[in-house]
Amino acid sequence: MKAKVYSIDGKEVREIELSDEVFGSKVSEGAIYYAVTNELANKRVGTASTKTRGRIKGSTAKPWPQKGTGRARAGDRKSPVWVGGGVVFGPQPRDYSYRIPKKMKRVAYRSILSMKAKSDQLKVVEDFSVESGKTRDLVRILSNFVDSDRTVIVMKDDDPMLKRAGRNIPWLHFQSFNRLSAHDLYYGRCVLVLETAANRLGEFYGRK
Fold this sequence. Notes:
The chain is an alpha/beta fold. It contains seven helices and six strands, in the order E-E-H-H-H-E-H-E-H-E-H-E-H.
């Protein structure tokens, strides 16, 4: 498929050929769902912790005799029915992360990129960097494509100065072509792919 290439000024300069396997494939909503859910689960810390009655510090003596008082039977003050007692079946520290097949991830990435391309939310931009590392210089470039909306920039490689310029922009996310995030891509309103990264995406996520 053909795609327009824009300069950093937002003007169309030429057209390039993109991989149909990556940017024009059939959208699999199931693969997208599993990939996004997997990423969210892997980010969970899982440090929630509660104490059962066996871990509560306190006396094990009966608060009053079993019979004769007219009150309900009570074993100790660590019982879950008492204020300050233990918790029944409460959360414990655990690992929520799990793995999904690599092929499913690749299908999800291809589906999201194809969906963004079909809905005109994906733009190919000439390779650029922000040598000054200043946020205002990057904002000046982004203003030609998006207006303070959730944006993802897919880079050809790790660019420390570009990331430095964008770290103060809350609605901007950076991704390398070989380390995509299904969650950020899917919820991004605008996906800016650098020209070299667009070609590498076709090579990296094409069917093998």
